[in-house]
Amino acid sequence: MARLLIIIAAISGFLAVIIGAFAAHGLAQLLSTSALATVKTGVQYQFYHTFALLFLGLWLLHKPATPGLKAAGLAFILGILLFSGSLYGLALGAPRWLGPVTPLGGLCLLLGWLLLLLAAWQTKPDA
Length: 127
Prior knowledge:
127 residues
């Protein structure tokens, strides 16, 4: 599980850099200021939660993968896909029905943080 989360974090970080650079350089002339800001928000949240996935993967190298930690990782992954993915799509002109997906992704991100908190609370400190 740790290895998989670290791999997903690496891929997500790589994609966030590409998307951010493409938006800043390739799409700057094609998208409105508002659409570029939407992409920037997606990239920021993708990066924040990429770091959360990386942290979680590194934690799991040293601790057992409890169901709560696995669920936190899954929630972060789903949140990145739904939140950032829907923002990217909306900025590029996807149908407006995609708009309600964004807050669902945000809820997944929040759930990931709550699950991480709960797992940390339940983890016994090393002696």
